Amino acid sequence: MSDQAPILTLTLNPALDMATDVAEMLPGCKLRCSEPMLDPGGGGLNVSRAILALGGDSLALVAIGGLTGDRLSGLIREAGVTFLSLPGPGETRQSLTVTEATSGQQFRFMLPGPLWGEAERNRVFTLLRATSRPGGYSVISGSQPPGVPADFPAQLAAAMPGCRVVLDTSGTPLTEAVRAPIPGLEVLRMDAEEAESLTGHALESREATADFAQDLVRRGVAQKVVVARGAEGNILATAERRLFANAPKVKVKSAVGAGDSFVAGLVLSFARGQNDDEALALAAAAAAAAVSTDATQLCRPADVMRLRPGVTVVEI
After folding, report:
1. Is the Cβ–Cβ distance between 298 and 53 less than 8 Å?
2. Is 276 considered catalytic here?
3. pLDDT tens for residues 163-186?
4. Of all helices (H) and strands (E), which one includes residue 61?
């Protein structure tokens, strides 16, 4: 295993992910499901699982609560991910992904998770100060738990001085991170829909997306801004460069975990000292590998290595 900087992932609203199939989604009927697949879910946890699959190391900080949390802890151990549990309020949430066999359509049901109070917020700050490593990478990814303020990512980053923070978020926390930039933020990632919600208009070309991403960098929002353009590929902008990596063509089985696999490939590359081009290429291959696996499975290393030569990184 090659040397790498420490990577910490944070999952404050994890989920016990269940995935099943039904023949057809019909209202008002009892729908007979196949045997469910169970996986530990949540943005940061998925990033740690994918980092492990790619041959890297990370430490996952996970908020755990109740009997569902106990089950989740067992699944994390089975997955081989190194983690520290943070006592969370109430019961860890569950999520359900149902695939309709007749159409291949996927339906994803995400429960909100327990409400956080001041005590839980203070606990996570204490744990971050104890576990984060200056010079290492810290990934803040996935949904925020109910009860935390919109600027919570900024508060989390402030509890990790000297860390290179990677933020992958959406909705109000993303809007807040752009409105009031987090000091020293290393990477901000979003998808095209989230980018368009910030601009208020469509970003119809790679160039338009690159303009938007680079403008955020030059406004001090982050050192690097990444925007995913779905099946087309991904844009990474710095103050000086704008890169595009195509998405390798694969048969899409499940979109679950593609963004988290992308972040895993990107952060692991950076932690290994690789440049932006190399990191973007591995990330694109990891995301494509993830969509070609069933249900809540993430990228498989053999698929990533097979798809990596099909990724071309070009300047825009």
Report:
1. yes
2. no
3. 999 999 999 999 999 999 999 999
4. strand 59-64
Q: How confident is the model over 50-86, as pLDDT tens digits?
A: 999 999 999 999 999 999 999 999 999 999 999 999 9
Which top CATH class is 43-86+113-315?
A: alpha beta
Q: What angle do CA 232, 46, 18 make, to 5 degrees?
A: 100
| Angle, alpha carbons 143-148-152 (nearest 5°) | 80
Q: Which two tokens stand for residue 77?
A: 């151990």
pTM for the predicted model, two decimal places: 0.89
Which residue is catalytic, options 260, 277, 294, 303? 260
Residue-wise over 124-136: b if at least 16 C-beta within 10 A, else e? beebbeebbeeeb
Tokens read off for 244: 């595009």
Reduced 3-state DSSP string for 196-215: HHHHCCCCCCHHHHHHHHHH
Nearest CA to 198 out of 176, 175, 179, 214 is that of 175
Residue for token digits 């825009």?
Answer: 316
Domain limits, the chain: 43-86+113-315
